[in-house]
Structures are given as structure tokens and as C-alpha cells.
Specification:
Blueprint lengths: L1 H20 L21 H22 L12 H27 L3
Helix pairs in contact: 1-2, 2-3
Length: 106
């Protein structure tokens, strides 16, 4: 049951990524909550990059939940915990170092 809920959360990220990727909005989607969005030089390319980031994040998130299938009190749950921590840090680093740097209007 835990893995099913975990997969639903991962699927939400995948659907969000697909939505952002195919978005036709003129205003760029923000990555950080409650933060003012910077001006983007190419909104469509920015949406594609952010959409890919969300889809990859969702897929890896689902894969990291596989130890939940091993049953209750499984020692493999530590892989899920540490993997998610690492995944979130990598996603933030990719956004700041690659996406934001490339698409921020100077």
C-alpha cells in the first residue's frame, strides 16, 4: 500500500512535468515556492527544461520507492530515505546551476 501511495506522488510530478513541458503560457512557471520569478529570455525552452526536470524527478522518485515493496521493517528503507535526500539536492542544483543560469534574462 505504501508503494502505491509513493507512486501516486511520483506520478503527480510526472504529470506536472508534462503539463509544464507542453504549456503555452507566456509567463514562466516558478520552481521555488513563494519566491518572485525572474525574467526568462526564452519561455518555451525554459518550460521544456523544467518539464524534463520534473519528469525525471518523478521517475527517479518512483524508483526510490521500490524498497517499500520489501515489507514492513525492511532495512532497505534507508535507501529510499537517503536517495530522496540526494535526489532533491540534485534537482535544486540542476535548476540553479543549469536551468536558471541558462534562461535568466540579464
Amino acid at each position: 500500500m505504501g508503494f502505491i501511495i509513493w507512486s501516486i506522488v511520483g506520478a503527480v510530478f510526472i504529470f506536472l512535468g508534462v503539463y509544464v513541458y507542453f504549456s503555452k503560457k507566456e509567463r514562466a512557471f516558478g520552481f521555488w515556492a513563494n519566491a518572485k520569478m525572474f525574467e526568462v529570455n526564452n519561455v518555451k525552452a525554459y518550460h521544456h527544461a523544467l518539464g524534463k526536470l520534473y519528469v525525471v524527478f518523478g521517475l527517479v522518485f518512483i524508483l526510490l520507492g521500490l524498497p517499500l515493496c520489501a515489507g514492513q521493517n525492511s532495512p532497505y528503507i534507508i535507501l529510499t530515505i537517503l536517495g530522496c535526500l540526494f535526489e532533491i539536492i540534485v534537482a535544486m542544483a540542476v535548476y540553479v546551476a543549469v536551468i536558471e543560469k541558462k534562461y535568466r534574462k540579464n
